[in-house]
Design a protein that fits this description.
The structure holds 2 protein chains of 2 kinds. By secondary structure, chain A is an all-alpha fold. Chain A has helices at residues 3-15, 23-30, 35-48, 58-75, 78-84, 89-121, 172-184, 190-202, 210-225. Chain A starts with a helix and ends with a helix. Chain B is built from 9 helices and no strands. In chain B, helix 4 crosses helix 7 (156-163) and helix 7 (156-163) packs across helix 8 (167-184). Classes of the chains: A mainly alpha, B mainly alpha.
Amino acid sequence: MKESNQNLLEDLMRQYSFDQLSQEDKSFVLSNISEEEYRAYQTIIAAAGTVATPTVPPSVKESLTKEFGRLHQSNGTIFQKIFSFKIPLWLVTLLAAALAFWYYLSSEDKPVQEVEMAQQQVEPKIIYRTDTIYKEIKSEPIVITKEVEKIIYVDRVVEASANEVPQPNRSLASDFEQSEYNMETNFFSDVDINELSIQKQQGRSVSQDAAIMNILDDIESQVTMK
Amino acid sequence: MSLFKKTYHKLNDAKLISFISKGDEGAFNELYMRYSQRMYAYFFKMLYQDKELAADFTQSLFLKVFEKAKNFNSDYSFSTWVYTIAANMCKNEYRRQGRPDPIIKMPLLAFNITEAKGPANLDSEIFQKHLQAAINELEEKHKQCFVLRYQDEHSIKEIAEILDCPEGTVKSRIFYALKKLSEKLADFKPDAQKKSNEGK
């Protein structure tokens, strides 16, 4: 029997009884085996597939489990034992919760520590910038009014001696102006000094005049008050 | 739960065997659940329907799987691999006994056919017992092919891999086994039944 014929025959036997075969299939079957053989083979194949077998006894599993544990306990390395160690789920959950709680607590202080660390680590960089500011303060000007009476000197004609050369009359005011001029120019003439001394002896002092002094005191007090 | 527990039922055989090699008992349980009944049934059919012997061989088979797990090549089918081990165990057992020695020898000739009403009406259980007895009397190589093909539903290619022989040889052995069985069960043929009834 050819190998291809065996395949086809087996397919037919597993699916159809001899009566269910078409004429073409029947002629094919009969060209290889008899009808009796076909029926017999088909009956055997069908019965073989339905042979009842008992279930495996539980003792096999028990002894295998023990043997498996013993085999891997004795031969396993320390790392295999560590990694194959089983941790209960409740313990894993508890540890995870504890870890999360610890992280929560530690994270509360963390910002303060960071700020302190930042303050310690960062050196202050001070930039000095200078500028001149002119501030104009406007205020009312202080006006001092001073009223001075014009001092009038009374010339008194002195009779000159015959030896003396008559001096032209000059006012003390003009002499004073001249003396002021001389002082400014740092120039004093002997004549003038003498004349001044003469005039002082002959003139009248302001301090001797009570009215003038009162006026001056008033002016001074007003200036002080301002 | 799936975060902490491996879903072994989703893993293929090759992955399970790799876990077993590392001592994963869960993988072992899953693999045992998948193959224990099949292998026990195979040994039961191959070893003369002896339950205790089949249990012992099943246990020995899984021990061999534990020991050889590291050597398993994941490029091949685990099913083929484990059946190859089982077939070799059976072959060694036959050699140890010297020849196939069926424990259950049904008295086929003594069976009262005249009381039967034909193969269609025969009690299927009785027929199966006779069939199993006839299978036991087959040569080991024919028996292997027949059991693997019609009782464990393997393909011709898989049987060829398990027994390490060409597919053509497997087909020839199967047809030879069918022929032998039909001869042994000739008394149950319809024609024989008809003749028996006619004679009656």
